[in-house]
Design goal:
Blueprint: H1 15-66, H2 72-75, E1 89-97, E2 100-108, E3 113-131, E4 134-151, E5 158-168, E6 171-177, E7 183-186, E8 189-193, E9 201-207, E10 214-221, E11 232-233, E12 236-242, E13 247-253, E14 255-257, E15 265-266, H3 271-288, E16 293-306
Antiparallel strand pairs: 1-2, 1-16, 2-3, 3-4, 4-5, 4-6, 5-10, 6-9, 7-8, 8-14, 9-13, 10-12, 11-16, 12-16, 14-15
Length: 308
């Protein structure tokens, strides 16, 4: 036992009684300390025996409560959610591109691949188009169907999508009319349409690949079947369809004359008029040949759901 020193300022006459009292206090404190030490020794032995008994019982209780030594909290921890099972989800979407209004359906293969089917259509008519002196009414008929494989090299986001248009009926039908007494040009040569029922008119067709199949290659952003389980997505893609050379045809009928309304000939049988018509069609063909690499820029919305 450590006793701290204390400085006291006391009258000299009180020193002897104070020292006598302090000696008696030390003697009593020593006796109390020895008694307390004996009791503490007995208590320590009893506590040690009790702790040893509990140490033997505790592992068995822990094993019964935790299942072989595994803590209850560890056994009830939730497992991490993995990617969807193959062919377990379907996505349906709608969008718009130069191929028309598009519909698509997709399913998942694994975390890197989806397979997707697409269908596109659009009908649109435009009147009063002026070209080469003709008044043209054009009807756009877009109809196509295809399939592609969506490859996600980083599991999500960016993708590459090779595919094929196995149905390709994209074309424009046009009606050409040269009003009676008006002029028009074929291969930079000027002709005049006769009056009445003999006025010149014609039918033209532009075909995108002439109905042949076309390989497609696109890239984009967004997975229509997200690994997160989210139901709605907004896919975007850009690419091209490699079609065959576009086809252009134009057939004219009626009568053409000179500027004075004389020297009239049938435009469908006159050699000069037909040569100029063929040259004009070739010019149109050269202009449209750029579309054999047909651009695809698509954006839309899709919803996916679980099927198994």
């Amino acid at each position: 036992m450590k006793i701290s020193a204390i400085r006291l300022s006391i009258h000299p006459g009180l020193v002897t009684p104070f020292l006598l009292g302090f000696s008696l206090s030390l003697s009593a404190a020593s006796s109390s300390a020895q008694s307390f030490s004996a009791q503490a020794s007995d208590s320590s032995f009893s506590s040690s025996s009790e702790l040893a008994r509990h140490a033997l019982v505790q592992p068995e209780s822990a094993a019964l409560m935790g299942g072989g030594g595994t803590s209850k909290s560890a056994s009830t921890a939730p497992a991490a959610q993995g990617p969807p099972k193959p062919l377990s989800r379907i996505a349906l979407g709608v969008g718009f591109s130069p191929l028309g209004i598009g519909f698509q359906a997709a399913t998942n293969i694994n975390s890197h691949f989806n397979v997707r089917g697409t269908g596109n259509f659009l009908n649109y008519t435009r009147n009063n188009i002026k070209t080469e002196g003709f008044d043209v009414t054009a009807k756009l008929n877009l109809a196509s169907a295809g399939a592609s494989v969506d490859f996600y090299p980083f599991h999500a986001g960016f993708r590459l999508s090779p595919g094929i248009l196995f149905y390709n009926q994209n074309k424009v039908d046009a009606v050409f009319i040269a009003a009676a007494g008006t002029s028009f040009t074929l291969n930079n040569h000027t002709y005049y349409s006769a009056g009445g029922s003999s006025a010149v008119q014609g039918l033209g067709t532009f075909g995108l690949g002439n109905g042949s199949q076309a390989f497609t290659m696109t890239t984009g952003w967004g997975n229509v079947i997200p690994a997160s389980g989210r139901h709605i997505s907004f896919p975007f893609e850009v690419g091209v369809a490699f079609t065959k050379d576009p086809t252009v045809s134009l057939n004219l009928s009626g009568v053409v004359c000179d500027a004075q309304g004389k020297n009239c000939v049938n435009v469908a049988t006159d050699a000069t008029a037909q040569a100029d018509l063929a040259a004009q069609v070739k010019k149109y063909q050269n202009d449209f040949n750029q579309l054999k690499t047909y651009p695809i820029v698509s954006f839309g919305v899709a919803y996916n759901f679980r099927i198994r």
